From TrEMBL:
Keyword Kinase belongs to the record: yes
Gene3D superfamilies per UniProt: Histidine kinase-like ATPase, C-terminal domain
Superkingdom to which the source organism belongs: Bacteria
Protein name: ATP-binding region ATPase domain protein
SUPFAM superfamilies: ATPase domain of HSP90 chaperone/DNA topoisomerase II/histidine kinase
Species this protein is from: Candidatus Protofrankia datiscae
Single GO MF annotation: ATP binding
Domain (Histidine kinase/HSP90-like ATPase) ranges: 27-134
Keywords noted in UniProt: ATP-binding, Kinase, Nucleotide-binding, Serine/threonine-protein kinase, Transferase
Pfam families for the chain: HATPase_c_2 (PF13581)
Entry annotated with the keyword Transferase: yes
Amino acid sequence: MDAAYATPVTPHPHAPTVEQLATWVLPLDPAVVAAVRAGVSRQLCAWGLEEAVFTTELLVSELVTNAICHGAAPITLRLVRGRVLICEVSDGGCGSPRPRRVRGCDEGGRGLFLVAQLCQSWGVRHTSTGKTVWTEQPLP
């Protein structure tokens, strides 16, 4: 990922090992989404999870776009490889993301519906500094 778009973060001392965790701090800029997808693809390939690339890129793209459009800085993306693949997008906003009903002619509004269809489970965790939207996918 281009250094202009992401700043690596040092993991918590009790967090998963470096081999199991990837974290990026992202600007509040829609132009970052393509670079984020590329970075996620590289990370998953480095972990030997090539089969998860397509779905994870879609999930990350939707969650990061929502954070940029509806959340607040700072935005952080984390991938955690454990018994499942966890994707977390945190932002400084306080809203509660939820899928909404859209009409056939609406151009947007389907992101969380897609997220719900593509992952095993997803949810929102609120903190004192904002929220984290997370997804879980089974490992290939």
